Amino acid sequence: MNGNGKETPLIEVKGLKKAFEIKKGFLGQKKLLKAVDGVSFAIRKGETFSLVGESGCGKSTTGRLVTRLLKPSEGEVWYDGQNISGLSDNAMRPIRRNIQMVFQDPYASLNPRMKVKDLVAEPLLIHTKLTPGERDKLASELLETVGLNSLHAERYAHEFSGGQRQRIGIARALSVRPSLIVADEPVSALDVSIQSQVLNLLQDLQEEYGLTYLFISHDLSVVEHISDRIGVMYLGSLVETADKDALYDKPLHPYTQALLSSVPVPDPSLKKERIILKGDLPSPVDPPTGCRFHTRCPSCMEICKTQAPIFREVEPGHEVACHLYNE
């Protein structure tokens, strides 16, 4: 509990920014690519908070900043009441076992030269003092937990399907009993039938182990299945956050409305008006002035071109950055 009597969020992100220096043009001029620009959100213990948006919007970079795989240019990341933004690698080491990551490509994230039992047990080697026999036993138990056979422990990653590899990645993340798992597009590389199996597995594990998820995806139908709350990102910034039901029932930001209009409806008798956004996603090296979405927004006003909207709460638990909702 904090001083106000409210429960401390497990993860709290405050004004997070990350810029990468790149060279551009024939003369190799150095410019800043603002991948994440002023993102703030909090994740309560035991919930699933999802980040959605187009490719290149900065959601994966945000996930890597939360796990401290990247250091922020500005802003803070708080884990369980502790500011971890500026911690050294040595100071971060005991915290890393509490924050694990499941990556998008289940093959690229697994060492092809290591047996499955060693892949799953590797975090135990780093973060615990278990004996080799104890690590192997726990690895076999974890494989059973994620729906694989303990006999698979002696095989290599290339001998498995994409869905099975992702289960191995999940078992690896679970091995040190983390409190937070950052899942970066964990099902986007899988067949649709396998996606639902992995999503159901993640939900079962959340209930069994009391996990908290930061779930990153571009697929709103996937996000609807697993989320408690959702944040919508555009060009490095959050444009809307809300509880899942509120976001799908009443999206406020024009960008969110366009994204939801593109989600397929399984009933062919239901017709839904599709909102087609004009133009391409602007470059994060040279973002538009004012509201970053104004170059593609069907509701663009003059103020949108010059003044950035404030991200504020317009309904209980529902925040949006849009001049349409100015007081």
Task: Explain what you see.
This protein has 327 residues and is of the alpha/beta class. The chain folds into 2 domains: 11-98 and 180-269, P-loop containing nucleotide triphosphate hydrolases (Rossmann fold, 3-Layer(aba) Sandwich), CATH 3.40.50; 107-177, no CATH class. The chain is built from 10 helices and 12 strands. The protein has helices at residues 59-66, 89-96, 116-127, 132-145, 162-174, 192-209, 220-226, 244-249, 254-261, 302-306, and strands spanning 11-24, 29-43, 48-52, 74-79, 82-83, 99-102, 180-184, 212-217, 229-234, 237-243, 311-315, 318-321. The strands form 2 sheets. The chain has an 8-stranded mixed beta sheet with strand order 6-7-8-3-9-10-12-11, with helices on both faces. Helix 3 (116-127) runs parallel beside helix 5 (162-174) and helix 4 packs across helix 5. The longest helix is centred in the middle third of the chain and has 18 residues, at 192-209.
